[in-house]
Design brief:
Helices cover 76% and strands 0% of the residues. It contains 12 helices and no strands. α4 packs antiparallel against α7 and α11 packs across α12.
Amino acid sequence: MMPLLRKAFAFIRRDFCIESGYQASFVMGLMESLMLLIILRFVGRLVSPTASSTLSHSGLAYFPFALVGVAFARYFDLMLRMFSDSIRTAQVTGCLEAMLCSQTDSITIVMLSSLYSLISGGIQLLLILLGGAFLFGVDLRHVDVPATLLVLLVSVAIFIAFGVLSAAAIVWLKKGDPITWVLGGLGGILGGAYFPIDVMPVWMQKISFLIPVTYSLEALRLTMLKGASLAEVAKPVGTLAIIAVVILPASAAIFAATIRRGRKEGTLTQY
């Protein structure tokens, strides 16, 4: 256990040393998020709660609905991208094969390489939510913390698994990552991050129910904005748990098989 913790700390320290030279990137990311909140705030003044059955039945205004949706959708998108970005960077710098040939197994290497992004992304998520609360008056006083943390934990596990699949796609395809494009780009739209699902055409609503982020955002909005307990979000959480049980071992097996194939063919360093 202690050797693994030392390795984790070493990866975090390495990435922190790299990113500390680019403080402007972190600041610009926060500014981008703040500008997005401002836009959503003014859009919210144009949207009536009666425009959507989701908003009217839940008693939510548009801006709190969008704040939670966009903040967590961006965080989940980071979960998807951080693994493939880590693999891509290692390929470009020529150290991927050396990393994967160490005594640490390939899955652990990828996980440790993404720890810093997981932490820094979590900090940005928290700052966005605090900005919505303190700058724009979103009421987050009724958050059911245990239920919210459980939903977040299961959701992060799912998107980490899809992120590992994304990394496998990079190793296999070299260029292009359909998993991130579908679950990240389209997922934020079809999953209801920016607007309620019920305002979309029926065929788009059917697709949205195939995307994990739909269930994550539904449960998070209820636990954070309405104070819903775990029992009240049992249906979306149950769906997420089933997805996690299936996708976690499958993603690990697929990534390991992709690495073995790359070693056998000598293509790990190609990009």
